[in-house]
Amino acid sequence: xxxxxxRASGYTIxxxxxxxxxxxxxxxxxxxxAGGEPLPDxxxxxxxxxxxxxxxxxxxSDWPPANLQQLAVEHIATVARLEPELxxxxxxxxxxxxxxxxxxxxxxxxxxxxxxxxPAACRTYNFLAAEGRNVAAAILIA
Length: 142
Prior knowledge:
Helices cover 24% and strands 26% of the residues. It has helices spanning 27-34, 73-80, 104-108, 118-130, and strands spanning 12-17, 20-24, 45-48, 52-55, 58-60, 86-90, 112-116, 135-139.
């Protein structure tokens, strides 16, 4: 019997709304978090109201910057350490551009960067993750 990794079994974004993102949590993560107890009746979803970083295999649910003005090099360095091939930087409800020097950790590591409004970053993340790409979405929820 051939067993292969189901690319859709990672973290995906179910919905985006002003001030919140709803994520689909992988079943394996739900089971581990339940620690042998019955799974919560939340449909495998988690609502987050704080900025986050998500990859198909990892969720950082407490990424510190709340808005573009709080974004700092160390926040971008956290994302760079995940070693994605591409970072989708969701910068809020409308497209904004960070200071170029903030992106130094990604540039030095040869990691691609796309600036987007947060709703577009969520849509693009799901598309690329479903293709099996090594993508990270760093979403500011302001």
